[in-house]
């Protein structure tokens, strides 16, 4: 009986020992798992949206702290990256981050906790994918750690974060329409945006196109510029500059500026000129102006060269104008104007907008580089894949690259001194038509005389034979 009690007590003690050891080992095992990369505590530091190689699918992730946040805006995307990218407390360097195949660097990176990329949808080599209902712009954020200073080691692995912005292909417009400035081609040739620019001469009452290209000194040239915008938004046409030359090359010499400084009709400032823009406009996509006829004093402008120049009083000129079309709601300013000089009031006046936008016509300082930063207008520039948006330093070059030249000519200018001959010249000179008539009459008279002689000779021969 005593042996049975002893055996039962021993078995009970053994079971109790096994139970305690198993409970202790389970606790230790849970504690150790909490410190491994696959533990649940680690997942609390891995925000949603970033692919971390050692996190298995299905594990919990804290969505409160996003290491990479993307804002998809109307024409650009903004990517904000936390410097604690991996949630380990070790901050990465902003110089180790780049965006897209073009490896664009961060827009802003201070001493704070984030790095910001702000780029256009087409920039940095992003890829556009079109589906039936959506437009998807895809790019990626790259992290490539580099050794610091003279060190030859790194303490983190490279990573790539896919990024995309999705937009609906159809929907209601909730903001103002895009306001592009298209680049025109010469004459009536259409651009890729289907804009056609025209420069032509009009008759005196502006009712139709002028058929003759010959003018007399003292006459006015009526010039009309227009743009055919097709299916685009309504646009307003501007004449930035016009130059007269003796050849189609606008850079040839001699040359004379008619319009300059982004819409200043400087020819009207001359003492013997009353050139001016026609105000008000008849249409927003047309602009008309008059120029008093002139000719170059140099011999190169004459149609006939020496020694026939005194018999050929025609001088030729070509007029080349730079035309620009912009959105119709563009506010007039020193770069969007049409200004004429009034000799009556001795002031510059504008076809649209306040008079003070023409004040730069007097000094000639109307370019973007001559405006203060707060007064510089916005130039909508068509974005191109892989190209960054223009900065303030290259606004002027971008603006100039949008201009194309339209040429009319040759125009022939006739001096008034050659319109009529003096009285002595009229008496002593026989007109050419009269000389021709006299020659014809003489030839006919000779033919009649010769015919009569032949007829008489034949009659004599007949009478002798009979």
UniProtKB/TrEMBL annotation:
InterPro entries with a match to the protein in the record: ZP-C (IPR055355), ZP-C_dom (IPR042235), ZP-N (IPR055356), ZP_chr (IPR048290), ZP_dom (IPR001507)
Signal sequence coordinates: 1-21
Family: Belongs to the ZP domain family. ZPC subfamily.
SMART domains per UniProt: ZP (SM00241)
PANTHER family: ZONA PELLUCIDA SPERM-BINDING PROTEIN 3
Role noted for this protein: Component of the zona pellucida, an extracellular matrix surrounding oocytes which mediates sperm binding, induction of the acrosome reaction and prevents post-fertilization polyspermy. The zona pellucida is composed of 3 to 4 glycoproteins, ZP1, ZP2, ZP3, and ZP4. ZP3 is essential for sperm binding and zona matrix formation.
One Gene Ontology term of the molecular function aspect: acrosin binding
Keywords recorded for this protein, A-Z: Cell membrane, Cleavage on pair of basic residues, Disulfide bond, Extracellular matrix, Glycoprotein, Membrane, Secreted, Signal, Transmembrane, Transmembrane helix
Name of the protein in question: Zona pellucida sperm-binding protein 3
Subcellular location: Secreted, Extracellular space, Extracellular matrix; Zona pellucida; Cell membrane
Annotated transmembrane regions: 435-456
Post-translational modification: Proteolytically cleaved before the transmembrane segment to yield the secreted ectodomain incorporated in the zona pellucida.
CC per GO annotation: egg coat; plasma membrane
Lipid bilayer topology: Single-pass type I membrane protein
Gene Ontology BP terms: binding of sperm to zona pellucida; egg coat formation; positive regulation of acrosome reaction
Limits of the ZP domain: 71-346
Domain notes: The ZP domain is involved in the polymerization of the ZP proteins to form the zona pellucida.
Originating gene: LOC117350370
Primary residence: secreted
